[in-house]
Write a structure and sequence with these properties.
Helix content is 47%, strand content 3%. By secondary structure, the chain is mostly helical. The chain folds into 2 domains: 2-23 and 186-311, no CATH class; 33-175. Helix 4 (52-65) packs antiparallel against helix 7, helix 8 (138-144) runs antiparallel to helix 9 and helix 9 (148-156) crosses helix 10.
């Protein structure tokens, strides 16, 4: 579906009625609409500074709300957002104004608890959290650690950021120019992935959820070959643990409709969000330059059937 949409094929992009009707996240996390905006516009826009503090500040400010419309509303009034020039009290007032006008400033993608910084307003507490991180020199600290898990541990030490959010933010920061870690070897399963795992396996063989996600990541080529599926990946990039974590989240959702008799650990039986085509133009996919991906929009997705390849 992702490749067909990028090629400009007309809808429907699938004959699967569940995938057609409901909203799902892309298999590769970096390809979803918000992650693409983060990478392209917030992190790597050539007009923005690649200074360590600035990249960290922009990434975290964007991800705390995780909503393109919120970011663009702030920049429309404030101008380019930066640590060296932006007054956070002004941002606080702008966010309050958006809420007073009935605007939703947070994405519904994550449950965002309010960190304990003393304000009644959640967004004020999140801005205090970001200011605290900057004052604590978190950008310098994550630059000096040896691996992605160490970045995660630093972020996890701050209030209001549980294991799942801390992991997501570590991945987001690792997309940017300030970190150069691989994504393999460390993963944290979120609530959706835990539910998806419980629907896929009658036994995990004693593996933790993180170990199981890594096991699936390691076996991807074996399992695809066993099913005669020619899976091109993301323009040649294999699934990473964060992507397989995503897959289990989407299996959790898909199975609510396809297999309602399997309750999983979350015991949820419906998908809340239907799919609607987003009116925004979809630009050419953009990924961290160090991935060195060659984006080919005409890349087919095929399955071997009777010795011949057919589109799936």
């Amino acid at each position: 579906m992702y490749h067909r949409r990028n090629r400009g094929d007309n809808e429907p992009w699938t004959h699967d009625t569940i995938l057609e009707k409901y909203r799902f996240t892309n298999v590769y996390r970096a390809t979803d609409r918000v992650s693409q905006y983060l990478i392209r516009e917030v992190q790597y826009n050539p007009e923005r500074s690649q200074d360590l503090n600035e990249v960290f500040f922009r990434t975290m400010l964007f991800k705390l709300f995780n909503k393109i419309e919120t970011w663009e509303s702030l920049e429309k009034v404030n101008g380019p957002l930066s640590w060296s020039k932006t007054d956070l009290s002004k941002i606080d007032s702008l966010l309050t104004g958006l809420m007073d006008r009935g605007k939703t400033i947070y994405s519904a993608a994550y449950i965002m608890p309010s960190p304990a910084y003393g304000s009644k307003r959640k967004h004020t507490n999140h801005l205090s959290l970001l200011k605290c991180m900057m004052n604590d020199r978190v950008p310098d600290r994550i630059k000096q650690v040896p691996d992605l898990q160490s970045v995660y541990n630093i972020i996890l030490s701050y209030p209001g950021l549980g294991p799942f959010l801390a992991y997501q933010y570590a991945i987001d920061l690792n997309y940017s120019s300030i970190l150069q870690f691989g994504e393999d070897g460390f993963v944290v399963a979120g609530p959706g992935a835990l539910d998806g795992i419980s629907k896929c396996f009658t036994s995990t063989g004693g593996m933790t959820p993180s170990e199981l996600i890594q096991w699936v990541t390691d076996r991807q080529e074996i399992e695809l070959a066993a099913r005669s599926i020619k899976f091109p990946g993301l323009y040649g990039r294999k699934l990473q643990p964060i992507d397989c974590q995503n897959i289990f989240c989407e299996i959790s959702k898909y199975a609510r409709v396809a297999h309602p008799e399997i309750s999983g650990v979350a015991n949820r039986n419906r998908i809340k969000q239907g799919y609607r085509t987003n009116p925004r133009d979809i630009p050419l996919p953009f990924f961290p330059p160090r991935w060195e991906l060659s984006v080919n929009l005409d890349q087919p997705v095929t399955k071997l059937v009777g010795g011949k390849t057919r589109l799936i």
